[in-house]
Design goal:
2 domains, single chain, 4-stranded mixed sheet, 227 residues, elongated, Glutaredoxin, 10% strand, alpha+beta, 60% helix
Length: 227
């Protein structure tokens, strides 16, 4: 993924091994697709790379694990300009028909690039909600974005995942704080914090249920104390 800085071109990576020279799909890509005049014209809109898998470093091989590639077949991986996977091809193709795939994949890449600023603005709103303690609203924004992950650029997708993990971590930390308040016999403060967790993290059911259980226990104790 190390490439020219600031490039907005999407990428095509052709992965193969030296043992695949006689593989039908490898021959199909090399002799049919890459030599087809119309396909070559389409590929001019892409930054194209060819890579022998044997020469990859161990960390690069680990990077490929996420794409669930067949080891006995070559692969054509289509990425957006930020390295987000658009399409994976490991079967033989008919060049005239595959042109439609290349074009539709390019349109998806262009859409991700075009919507990047809009998605970053949405993510900024989610961050503002998080900073203000409105975790419920932040989760709703981020969940909505995650459902449209296909049209999000890789950078935004990574940021959304980071934000959701941060919210989960915050929920866990607040549960620990509420438990500590309970042990210090600050029952009302503990009750209020559990109530807040239950409400704000309603979509994170595991945390919300945990808070609800303790809040109900504390409610009974507070009633017994006449509070």
């Amino acid at each position: 993924m190390n490439r020219e800085a600031g490039s907005k071109k999407p990428m095509v990576v052709f992965l193969y091994s030296s043992s695949m020279n006689k593989d039908c799909c490898c021959a199909n890509f090399e002799r049919a697709l890459f030599r087809d005049r119309d396909s070559v014209k389409e590929f001019k809109s892409w930054a194209c790379y060819k890579q022998l898998t044997e020469s990859l470093k161990d960390e690069d091989k680990k990077l490929l694990e996420q794409y669930d590639l067949r080891k006995d077949k070559p692969a054509l991986l289509f990425f957006d300009s930020e390295g987000g996977l658009l399409h994976k091809q490991q079967l033989c193709v008919d060049p005239p028909k595959f042109i439609k795939v290349i074009r539709s994949t390019k349109k998806l890449s262009d859409m991700r690039l075009r919507l990047r600023k809009t998605h970053l603005a949405e993510r900024k709103k989610a961050r503002e909600h998080m900073e203000a303690g409105r975790y419920g609203k932040a989760i709703r924004v981020l969940d909505g974005m995650a459902k449209n992950r296909k049209i999000m650029s890789e950078t935004v997708s990574v940021l959304v995942d980071q934000d959701l993990k941060e919210i989960e971590s915050t929920a866990g930390e607040l549960l620990i704080q509420a438990s500590a308040l309970k042990k210090e016999n600050r029952l009302l403060d503990s009750y209020r914090l559990y109530e807040e967790i239950e409400k704000e993290f309603e979509k994170l059911k595991e945390y919300s249920k945990e808070a609800s259980k303790h809040r109900k226990e504390l409610l009974k104790k507070l009633k017994d104390l006449g509070l």
